[in-house]
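Repro:
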Amino acid sequence: MEELPIIQKTYDLIKWYVPILNRLPKLHKFALGDRIINGLYNLLEGLLVARYNKEKLKQLESLPQRLKSR
């Protein structure tokens, strides 16, 4: 993952942040917590797709729009 070290950083963020979100009160955990967790996993997925895509820059540039639409 030398080409995109952000993949490891994003994975580390997920590992650190998900347990914190799981401690939120039930109301916030299922509303806000799930949205944040899904967004983080979508970000990681987009980064992984870009890593193996021939046109990395094009894939990375489209990532913010893809995250907004989900």
